[in-house]
Amino acid sequence: MRCAIYARVSVADAEHRELTSITAQIEACQQFIASRRGLGWVLAGPAHVDEGVSAATLQRPGLRALLAAIRQDKIDVVAVHRLDRLSRSLFDLSDLLPLFAVQGVKLVSVTQPIDTHTPNGRLSLNILTSFAEFEREIVGERTRDKLAATRRLGRWQGNGTPLGYEVDHEQRLVVAPQDADQVREIFLRYLAFDTMAELMAWIGKRGITTKRWRTRSGKTRGGQPMDRTTVYRILNNRMYIGEAFFHDEWHSGIYPPIIDLEQWRSVQEKLAQRARRKGIPNEGRSPLEFPLLGKCCYALKIPQIF
Hints:
alpha/beta, Rossmann fold, Hect, E3 ligase catalytic domain fold, 2 domains, 5-stranded parallel beta sheet, two-stranded antiparallel ribbon, 9 helices, elongated
């Protein structure tokens, strides 16, 4: 029985301690495999590891390498320290288990009595995965509540701020005068110009770029030439009138505004007028607006010329 080990942690160990969570998982799996040496279990190669990667996605380098080895029929048993190291999602697990079953691969957990070759083991697997998914959803709900409370106080969470703003020492959004002037100019020029091409030419001539900011690791991001999508996002960003989005709706009076409400409404009206000129999408329209819908049309008969 060729055994492979899979280990994962959500956040990389920045302190580089002597015994990391990854190391503890691998050692526990190695001891578990060694205890079954009498049954013919042997370790087949180094462990497959994903460090600092969430279980919310299956697009993990270590997991993809493990699945590739399974498809190549190099593995008979996959050992994990706990089931949630492999996946916290019942839907993701439902994609992984059929692949294991087709290849005849057994999944075992060192700390949980799981054997996917038996009905009881599969039932235990589904129950444990359901609780793991429930835990992840609860964490997500708490995160959303924290984000909503932060935005309600006018504070900013994340890295880059919108063009025109910066963050003070209390994590509050404050107006960056120079960038804010560029935002105001974009709104004014949009109202003054007849076409978006004129506005884009003016932005390029002025050398206005996207917001430049630094990551926590000190890397510079942004500062790229603006395209139409970026400009439309600026023109539609309600943060510029002081609103913040949380609890699935926009709330006013949260951030310091850059654009006054009257100018904002004028820009939105012009955006809507241009959208109507370009045509209304068919999605959501009544079938009564299309009287020929479903009608047959006959091809024109063109006489052949010999």
